[in-house]
Amino acid sequence: MLAERNVDVPPSEIRKIFNKIIGRTDIFDMTVGIPDFDTPQHIKDAAKQAIDDGYTKYTHNAGYIETREALAKKLKRDNNIKADPETELICTAGGMGALVTAHLVLLNPGDEVIYPDPGFVSHFAHIKLAEGIPVPIQLKKELGFGLTAEDVASKITPKTKMLVLNSPNNPTGGVISNKELKQIAEVCIENDIYVIADEAYEQFRYVEEEPLFIGSLPGMKERTVSIFSFSKTYAMTGWRIAVATGSSKLIGAMTKLQEHIIAMPTTIAQKAAEAAAIGPQDCVVDMLKTFRKRRDLITRGLNSIDGVDLQPPGGAFYVFPDVSAFGIKSYDLVHQILKETSVATIHGTAFGKFGEGFLRLCYAVSTERIEEALSRLDSYLPKIL
Ligand SMILES: Cc1ncc(COP(=O)(O)O)c(C=O)c1O
Fold first, then answer.
1. For residue 40, with 0-12 CB atoms within 10 Å meaning exposed, 13-18 middle and 19 or more buried, which class applies?
2. Cα 37 to ligand 1 centre (Å)
3. Which of 14, 26, 39, 328 has the fewest CB atoms within 10 Å, i.e. is most exposed?
């Protein structure tokens, strides 16, 4: 009965674990990437005001023009990307809404797409949904899970249409260095390859280098869709709002498609994003300070456990420790740890085949929860080494 694409698009392995523990209060949940902070007050106030002011009707398919103007200011300020709010950016239903429409407007059946592995679970699913051919590129622990231009070039064939980038990366926390990013851009230009830059963790960086965004590099605007989600930066995962920017041709095609899928993201979320984009940014700075402390805490704690090896991640809010020393498949290890310690983690293979031998732990949770999880892991893991 169901169309073949249902078979091709795999379910999320993360959700399988998450659903298993849902409602259980005895679990130390380190699974899903949901910041534990509340959405900042001024953003919530803007949303309430929007309802009272009657911002409750259909809008342009790309979003309110004043919202797009605010988002264009954010792109200029934070990402060094100049975008015409009339034609070069679109409000979408979360990063996910932008990712799926970008894949659908760019890919023809049989086009090859290079994407990071380990990587965000939906990247593979979106390529399959658009009938592309997924070509995984391994993010290596020895390189801090960054990506080199040489690695990208080695995967290019005459059928390569697109490259998906996600730096800082989910699940590894790896960050691509600015030098490599510039070289990757050159490889894309030379080989006429498009880029989807999934910038979901744009603000979550613990490296010294100034952030650089591939969509801001010369010659890249016309071949890049840069996607900036509000979910993680402003603790707005439930609001479903993001902005995508690129050439007017690409954004025009995404806007046309969005009309037929969701019409536009919720008006209230648009107005909240507008306030987030142009309002005070100290809430982001404060959250990041906390995330940096948690990253240090969990990295130190995991490295002190026999058999666990972890380089401090350069970004995002996940750690991806190497647990291959235990000699147990990461899927089995996750279930064993859950049963014996009540700490819920995700197996590396949920993020692609190159995730074998690793676990993902999300540290967007309280310091107390991190400390308790570490203590439980420390009392259990050495026993099975
Ligand atoms: C790398 C990456 N991209 C995109 C998303 C989707 O985020 P949203 O649709 O909430 O913006 C996530 C969520 O975890 C993610 O980790």
1. buried
2. 17
3. 26
Of 209, 151, 198, which Cα lies nearest the Cα of 170? 198
Which of 254, 199, 208, 260 lies closest to 230, judged by CA?
Answer: 199
**Which pLDDT tens digit goes with each residue over 73-106?**
999 999 999 999 999 999 999 999 999 999 999 9
| Residue closest by Cα to atom 16 of ligand 1 | 170
One domain, residues 354 and 224: no
CATH code, 103: 3.40.640.10
User: What is the number of the ligand 1 atom nearest to the C-alpha of 230?
Assistant: 11
Task: Tell me, in angstroms, the distance from the centre of ligand 1 to residue 200's CA.
Answer: 6
Write the residue with the smallest CA distance to atom 12 of ligand 1.
200
Tokens of 346: 């995700």
Q: Are residues 18 and 71 in the same domain?
A: no
Whether 253 and 157 share a structural domain: yes
Q: What is the DSSP letter of 270?
A: H
Q: State if residue 166 touches ligand 1 by the CB under 6 angstroms criterion.
A: yes
Say yes or no: CB of residue 173 within 6 Å of ligand 1: no
Residue 279 burial (10 A CB sphere; 0-12, 13-18, 19+): middle
pLDDT given for residue 8 in this prediction: 80
Q: Contact at 8 Å (CB) between 360 and 318?
A: yes
Where the chain has pLDDT below 70, the residues are none
Residues 185 and 132 both lie in one domain: yes
Q: Atom 13 in ligand 1: which residue has the minimum CA distance?
A: 33
Helix (H) or strand (E) holding 71: helix 65-79
Write down the pLDDT at residue 17: 86
One domain, residues 200 and 313 = no
* Ligand 1 centroid distance, CA of 239 (Å): 12
Shared domain check, 24 and 109? no
Res 91: pLDDT: 98
Quote the ligand 1 centre to 24 CA distance (angstroms).
25
Domain of residue 175: give its range: 41-278
Number of domains in the chain: 2
CA-CA distance, 87 to 254, in Å (whole number)?
11
pLDDT at residue 20 in the model: 85
Does residue 204 line the site of ligand 1, with CB under 6 A?
no
Ligand 1 lined by 94 (C-beta under 6 Å):
yes
